[in-house]
Design a protein that fits this description.
The chain contains 20 helices and 13 strands. The chain is an alpha/beta fold and about 600 residues long. Helix 2 runs antiparallel to helix 3 and helix 7 packs across helix 9. The longest helix has about 35 residues. The radius of gyration is 25 Å and the shape is globular.
């Protein structure tokens, strides 16, 4: 609770909150007027059965434990309820997933993501390279515990008479938000490994707003420093330490108290990062400049003119397309956004009561609005150079404080409004569920070659710009999974090529940029004698079958490269219904060792 008499502090809290809601409403409106850019249109698959069963188990546990006083045990049961689904189902490789597999074997960590790199490195060193596939489910359990603890200490503690209802809200948010995709096995990525520490920082931000004083702000700073060590994007949240101190003690009224709280918090955050970096060095890992490639990203911020400054974006800062992309991101990361705004636009008397309740919540908890603004504000400026869905992890991770803040505001509304909001919340979660289902890889069927084969290796071919290396074992075959590109007009016609040997890397800016193993098959850089057609629907292809027309994900029949091929690089050419042409990522298949 803010100190009595500090009307300026109350005004700041409300101002930040209404600014947050106004900006979110603007982004959703910009996205709504551009339906051709809705992500849901291209991602509409249902999750595999293990995920549905895991969700059902989670829901049963959430309802059964909503009145338990032993919240530690209830939280542990909820955190473990989805673990079987996370361990059973994989997702297709996105972003820098394959680079992390390579770097987990090196004693170097990138400066921008020291903690995540260190986790993968130590897991590889202690348990072997296959163990890094299980890092994300383990962190998923930690995230669930931290999120439920945050809700218990903020929402439930403030309204103990509504404890059972609020616990169901928390469980629904945990299950239906875009976070769910992070924690599936084999999702070897980095940014969301920092989220358990971010949630603990938000918990102490809340304690500071509730009267915890400078000590609570320093504890928030310590957890924020730990999150920054894991992934550097949390550095953008450090100004929240200054703003929350200013909301409690406005600098024009209590400059000494404001300065003392803010400076001590910043010193604690910096000290935690420095101490953890020193521990990383003691663990035997050299810290190198930039990210895991040892350099720097192409761009940090969205350019004003993409034609002059960017290679991978088709829009610039403040363009309508940029607003539509952010509106899509809000729907994926924050299911509470759309219901909250719709409820506030209700009939005048009802809406006036809802707005009054919302204003009271903002007056008491300005930290929620400040951290939420920090998340969506940074997402508006940061340059996601891999785009969607390859940068899905970073996009949704950055907006986690926004999702938490909007959920807190939604649950502060009157009872009748909350009941309507529950239905709208479930509908708003559909986009995240559609994305989830389209990127998950279901359980592999029995191998068509029978007991003679020792297994299968999946190769996902989509326009995500990554390069994957697979080594076959004796008797093993490949099943390639084709995925239509994001934004492509369906149906998409595909041709799968193979290139014997490892071709030269494509020049920057050409077709094959962003990690493609080789450029366009029509390029003179190719040796036509080494090019083969794996599948195109013709009798001459190595994998016979019908013409490949994609309305969704499609798995090809098993393919085993002939022994004489040696290393074979596989890539798909994709043409959509409007004539646009895409080139998939590359899968470099290495033959079995003799």
């Amino acid at each position: 609770m803010l100190p009595r008499g500090h009307r300026d502090a109350e005004f700041l809290g409300r101002a930040f909150g209404w600014l947050l809601l106004g900006y979110v409403a603007f982004l959703l409106a910009v996205a709504a007027v551009q339906p051709d850019r809705w992500l849901l249109r291209d991602f509409a698959a249902l999750p595999p059965w293990p995920v549905l069963l895991g969700a059902l188990l989670f829901a049963v546990v959430a309802v059964a434990t909503r009145r338990w006083r032993a919240r530690g045990l209830a939280h542990a049961l909820l955190a473990l309820a989805m673990l079987p689904a996370w361990l059973t189902v994989c997702i297709q490789p996105l972003g820098d997933s394959e680079l992390w597999r390579v770097w987990s074997a090196r004693d170097q960590v990138g400066l921008s993501e020291m903690g995540a790199n260190l986790v993968f490195r130590l897991t590889h060193r202690w348990f072997g390279p296959a163990a890094i596939d299980f890092v994300t489910p383990v962190f998923g359990v930690g995230f669930a515990l931290a999120f439920l603890h945050l809700g218990e200490c903020t929402l439930v503690a403030a309204r103990p008479r509504r404890a059972a209802e609020l616990r169901l809200w928390l469980a629904a948010a945990l299950l239906l938000s875009g976070w769910q995709l992070f924690w599936f096995r084999s999702n070897v990525e980095n940014s969301f490994l920092s989220l358990p520490f971010c949630l603990l920082a938000l918990r102490h931000f809340a304690a500071h707003a509730d009267g915890g004083g400078d000590a609570a702000l320093r504890r928030a700073a310590a957890w924020l420093g730990a999150a920054t060590f894991v992934h550097g994007y949390h550095l953008a949240m450090w100004p929240a330490l200054l703003l929350t101190a200013a909301c409690r003690y406005p600098p024009w009224r209590s400059p000494r108290q404001c300065l003392r709280g803010a400076v001590s918090a910043l010193v604690v955050a910096a000290a935690v990062v420095a101490a953890l970096a020193a521990a990383c060095h003691v663990a035997g890992c050299a810290i190198v400049e930039g990210h895991i490639t040892g350099g720097t990203d192409d761009r940090w911020l969205v350019p004003l003119d993409p034609k002059a400054a960017a290679a991978h974006y088709d829009f610039g800062l403040l363009w309508p397309e940029h607003g539509a992309a952010l509106g899509n991101l809000v729907l994926l990361a924050c299911p509470a956004a759309a219901p909250l705004l719709l409820l506030l636009l209700g009939p005048w008397r009802r809406g006036r009561r809802d707005r009054a309740a919302l204003g009271a919540a903002l007056r008491q908890r300005p930290d929620a609005a400040i951290t939420a603004l920090g998340g969506i504000g940074f997402a508006s400026l940061y340059y996601f150079d891999l785009g969607f869905p390859a940068d899905y992890d970073l996009m949704v991770s950055i907006c986690t404080p926004t999702a938490v803040g909007l959920l807190l505001l939604l649950t502060s509304l009157p009872r009748a409004t909350r009941r309507r909001g529950a239905i709208l919340f479930g509908l708003a979660a559909l986009p995240a569920g559609a994305i989830l289902g389209s990127l998950l890889l279901p359980l592999a069927p029995p191998h068509p070659l029978g007991a003679a084969a020792r297994g299968t290796a999946d190769g996902a071919l989509s326009a995500n710009g990554s390069t994957t290396a697979l080594r076959l074992r004796p008797g093993e075959s490949l099943i390639f999974v084709l995925q239509p590109p994001v934004g492509a007009a369906l149906p998409v016609q595909a041709t799968v090529y193979g290139y014997r040997g490892v071709p030269a890397v494509a020049p920057a800016g050409g077709n094959g940029d962003r990690g493609f193993a080789f450029p366009d098959p029509s390029s003179p850089r190719w040796d036509p004698q080494r090019l083969v057609i794996i599948s195109d629907g013709s009798p001459a292809s190595l994998v016979p079958g019908p013409v490949l027309r994609l309305d969704g994900r499609l798995a090809l029949p098993p393919f085993s490269p002939p022994p004489g091929f040696g290393t074979t690089t596989v890539q798909a050419e994709l043409k959509d219904a409007s004539g646009r042409r895409f080139v998939s990522n590359a899968v470099v298949v290495e033959p079995p060792r003799r």
